[in-house]
Structure formats: structure tokens, C-alpha cells
Amino acid sequence: MNNSVLIALPLLACIILSPVSKADTVQGSINHAIKMSSFNLSAQKWKNRVLLVFAPSVDNPIYQQQMQLLQKHNKGFADRDLVLVQVLATNESYANRQLIDESSAAKLRESFGVDKENFRVILVGKDGSVKRSDATLVQATAIFEEIDAMPMRQQEMQERRRK
Fold first, then answer.
1. What Pfam families does the record point to (predicted)?
2. What is the pairing mode between strands 98-100 and 82-88?
3. Are the beta carbons of 69 and 139 closer than 8 angstroms?
4. Sequence-ordered alpha helix ranges (H) in the chain
5. CB-facing half-sphere around the CA of 105: CA atoms within 13 A
6. Are 93 and 19 in contact (CB under 8 A)?
7. Angle at Cα 64 formed by Cα 70 and Cα 150, nearest 5°?
């Protein structure tokens, strides 16, 4: 199997396993419809882990650094059934690169008590509970180590080795 296929497979898996459902459309500036979806955290329970990155805007330097730390690790996200949700106060928010509506973003902020001006990274396990919460930059490897130490992830790795 060539390298481009190996790179494309995790990305395709992320798109296929996207945690959003069609909710609405909005008119884009180029006069075409942009799909906007809702994101329901409880729909992820027992299916995916969720990494929430809260920030005031895309211009926030800490947010930009955090996204740079995460962007190199698509395969690690796919291997761990980890969905990335970017919740931005003054810009569009995304779940696995798919636009989510403002009400979904607002609900996530309210649920986790994150003010619009704050930066926060929160890892939610498949059981729906918060596994870690950081107000500073987090390395993807630290998040992966945390996940890999979880009993459910240990079981997943054993099952995958048997196949």
C-alpha cells in the first residue's frame, strides 16, 4: 500500500465518523450554501472520545499554537476514536473540520463553564466524563498517553492486536 493511501485512510475515517448531523444551511459569501450542523456531545458517548479546544478566536496565539501541536497527529486521533471540536467565541466552530452551529458551540461552553475569553482544552472519554482539563497548551502525545492508559483503550488495543 503506498504512503498516500496510508495518509488518506485516517483522514477518510475522520470524515466518515464525523460526529455531526445535518441541521441547517447558511448562505456563504460566494452565494452558495454552506452546510451547518449541530453537535451533540451525548451522541458521542460510547462511540468516540472528544477533545474540545475552546478559544476566544482563531487569532488567539495560544489557540494557534495548540492547533499546530495537534495538526500533525491525524493518525493518532483516528486510532483513538478521538474527535476534535474547536469552539471559538468570535469565529465559526468545527467538529472534525465540519462547521457546527452557534447554539451547539454555546451549549458546549455552558456545559463546561468556559467563558468566551478563555482558552481551555478538555478531553472527554467515551463514557462521557471529563478525563483532563488544561488552561495551557497540551502536547498531542500527552493527550494520547492519557488515553492509552485508560482501561477501555487498553481493551481496544488488545482487540486490535488479535485481528
1. DUF4174
2. unpaired
3. yes
4. 3-16, 61-71, 74-79, 102-112, 140-148, 151-162
5. 25
6. no
7. 30
Please indicate, yes or no, whether the overall pTM of this predicted structure exceeds 0.90: no
Determine contact, residues 81/148, Cβ cutoff 8 Å: no
Tell me the one-letter amino acid at 108: L
Phi, psi of 131 (to 5 degrees): -100, -30
Range of the domain at 24: 3-162
pLDDT of residue 116: 96
CATH for 35? 3.40.30.10
Q: How many domains does the chain have?
A: 1
Burial class (CB in 10 A: 0-12, 13-18, 19+), 125: buried
Query: What is the C-alpha end-to-end distance of the chain, expressed in Å?
Result: 19
